[in-house]
Amino acid sequence: MLTKSKNTSISFSEFALSSSGANHILFWMVILLILTILEGTQYGFWFTFSNELINTSFYALIVYFNLLYLIPNYLSKKQFLTYAGLLVLSAAIFSPLKMMVFYLKFSAKAELQHDLLNNQFAYFLTIFIVSCISTVAKIISDWVANLREKQELETQTMQTELRFLKSQINPHFLFNTLNNLYALTLKKSDQAPEIVLKLSMMRYMLYECNEKRVLLNKEINYLHNYLDLERLRQGKQANILLKVEGEIKDQMIAPLIFIPFLENSFKHGLSNAIDKESFVNIFIRVKNNQLQFFIENSKPSKSPLKDPNRPSGGIGLANVHRRLNLVYPNRYDLKIDDSPVAYSVELVLELD
After folding, report:
1. CA distance 125 to 192
2. How far, rounded to the nearest angstrom, does the alpha carbon of residue 25 sit from its chain's CA centroid?
3. How far apart are CA 51 and CA 39, in angstroms?
């Protein structure tokens, strides 16, 4: 696709002084050298070189007239018939001019002048083909540039969306913890100071989690702190288990990828339970660069009554799916099982 320039009247001097001007000069020098070599030196090197210098000059003229005037003013504005007619007309004007220059140059060589007059159509066709090649090259280069810009825009959009999804997670957990701390403070519970101490993990959330990837052992350590807070809040009757298997070295993982699963387990499972058999079990198995995360929580025998004054919703699994698709495209498997007595999630990731 051809891009429309805001200023279609670009002078040749501006073009030559641009950052790509040196590359264009080098390109035409290479073309001149190739044409000289292909033509041979039957009449001497400098005679052949001067001939191809004239050829290259006229090729450059038709190419830049096409690129800097015809394409921006007609082809980019989808005036296809007008553009095609002007391109043919340009070739019809440039080719006799070139022949006139050669005819004067060949004044001492009548045989070359004779060949020149017999090949007028070939001269026209050559210039026209060169101008058409420049059009195709322009279309391809603009298409590649647009594709590159689109990919860069998609990358920037993806990074912005990831930052937004992560920003949804951090305040969500913080507000839940502060709410729990407020409840314990009202009860003057001795557990309140421990929760304040455990909140030191906020340093991890505020600073290290801004990175695209974090060390897996730090993420697991964060899960331990998170569960310690939940044990303090739930009390001694809470059945909370975290088991980690495998060798954890320098594997990297997207930060806070497991937190929504933990929040849902406690919000919809253990926090609403009234029997002592309620549980939240978490298993993490690491083998080479593959990680298996499994979490299962019991479900209350009776669904809790919803408070009409309390807003519903949350970041939910939609956030998790979207983030996984952005961070681990085609590199994860997520399975969810919702039975009458338990809710489980299994996530398999290919780590970096």
Report:
1. 88
2. 34
3. 9
Burial class (CB in 10 A: 0-12, 13-18, 19+), 181: buried
Q: Tell me how far the alpha carbon of residue 294 is from its chain's centroid.
A: 31
Number of helices (H), then strands (E), in the chain: 11, 7
Other C-beta atoms closer than 10 Å to the C-beta of 21 total: 14
Distance CA 233, CA 244 (A): 23
Domains annotated for the chain, with CATH where assigned, are 12-152 (no CATH), 189-350 (3.30.565.10)
CA distance 334 to 350: 12
Contact status, residue 223 vs residue 262, Cβ threshold 8 Å: yes
DSSP characters for 258-290?
SHHHHHHHHHHTGGG--STT-EEEEEEEEETTE
- What confidence tens digit (pLDDT) does each residue in 150-186 have? 777 666 666 665 566 555 555 656 676 677 777 777 7
Is residue 270 within 8 A of residue 279, CB to CB? The reply is yes
- Segment 50-104, tens digit of pLDDT: 888 888 899 999 999 999 899 999 888 889 899 999 999 999 998 889 888 888 8
- Three-state DSSP at 114 gives helix
* DSSP 8-state secondary structure symbol assigned to residue 99: H
